[in-house]
Amino acid sequence: MTPLFLILIAVVILTSIFLNTISSRIGVPTLLAFMLLGMLFANNGLWPVRFDNYEFAKETCTVALIFIMFYGGFGTRWDAIKPVVKESVLLASVGVVITAGVVGVFCHYALGWEWLESMLFGSVMSSTDAASVFSILRSKRLGLKNNTAPMLEMESGSNDPAAYMLTAVFLSAMNGTASGGSVAWSIVAQILFGAGLGVAIAYAATKCFRKMQFPTAGFDSLFIFATAIASYAIPTLVGGNGYLSAYIVGIILGNEEFRDKKSLVNFFDGLTGLMQMIIFFLLGLLARPTLMHKAILPALAIFLFMLLVARPVAVFGILTPFRKYGFKQQALISFVGLRGAASIVFAIMAMVDPAFLHNDIFNIVFVVVLLSIAFQGSLIPWAAKKLDMVDPNTDILKTFNDYTEGTGMNFGQISITGESTWAGKSIKELGLPDNVLIALVIRGDERIQPHGSTVLQKGDEIITLTRGFDDTSIFLYEKTIKKDSRRVGQRIADVPGQGLIVMIRREDKNIIPSGNTVLHAGDKIVILNLKRQS
Description:
Helix content: 55-70%
CATH class of the largest domain: Mainly Alpha
CATH architecture of the largest domain: Up-down Bundle
Shape: elongated
Number of domains: 3
Largest sheet: 4 strands, antiparallel
Structural class: alpha+beta
Order of helices and strands: HHHHHHHHHHHHHHHHHEEEEEEEE
Distance between the termini: 53 Å
Low-confidence stretches: 403-407
CATH topology of the largest domain: Na+/H+ antiporter like fold
Strand order of the largest sheet: 1-4-2-3
Mean pLDDT: 81
Number of strands: 8
């Protein structure tokens, strides 16, 4: 039986990869394919699986959501979201409460549900799904105007903790374990311990990561992997919000400068994709099409109400007072509020909780998520164009914390031997070809950021922007020259700063600079930063 089971796993994974390719081409979120694949194996496959272990699904999905939340922070570039932090936090907290309340009122008065169960369902559906949104924006390279993409990223990446708190509160109220004081303390404790321990864990992990020397490649990924788990588990033990902590730890670590960061981003990108696949595949396994017909009408009503009323009320109610977000932008932000992984996890929580449910919440959530991903998800590019919110000059990938993607810059290494004609010469005497830059001189244990007058010596290792080179102590980051910057109109040599400018992005050109290169307003300068070892 074991070989057959392993073959089944291999078939599922290979089929998922195939569906991933197809769904990316047609613009439908990949996670929809995983959901349908789960349904196929559960009901109509060659080896039908009767899977109804909600407790196992809850534990599995809880672990998966830890890494989704962690990477939601780890992949977020602080410089990109900084201009919209206030609005994003409000959408991720107050917006969640408004959405839950409005949906709860609709379920009570329009569908005739009891109050507590109505508010529970509103809480379960109150957060948006970052993975679904950005799988579409990435695949379509859909840049958006006026910092819309960073706002969507931070809101959808950080609103799950608020939805989790609301879900836990209403579940405790339904099973009779809640009181005014216990609910108030639970909310305070979740925020206080979740945020406080998240900052502490991130600080400790950063200090340790900088001081540790890993003997084998890949152990740094395992260190961050363990940190992500601890960021959830430790606060949860003392009543804190583990998801909030995981997000905070992720965003702090993701914006630190440390060695081999690109490989960490790739590792967690793949890991998070696997976790999302597991959640949606489990959702497909748990779904029962024979019961789905009873859930379709209430799910369709709730979906349309959320799309046309609940989400717009939350978005317009929060962003309109800022007076800098137009109707079209707010309309797009409202439309992009997809439901996904977190709603599934919270619905499973409700199924295993002792609270008695009068309605088939799980299957209703299934249909709502299916409609949201298939309908809304497919129409996001169309909606962005119709609302004139597409910015062709904005690279959506720059919203994420993986800068080096697509730069085309590679490091190379040259050794200065006793026979080398470079030994004893200054860099300006070498007559280097155009577009070749010496970025670093390694002399014994010393690392020197060179200048034109730097004299090369026998035994030096010269790092250039040529062939591939992997150095764990140098990092690239990007800054934009603002109109009021003192660097505008100045030669690079006349305005020294921290680090070495190794490339200038000017409109659609990449320029390898020299000391005589004059900087212009709007230039994006790529700076090599030499991180001192602790």
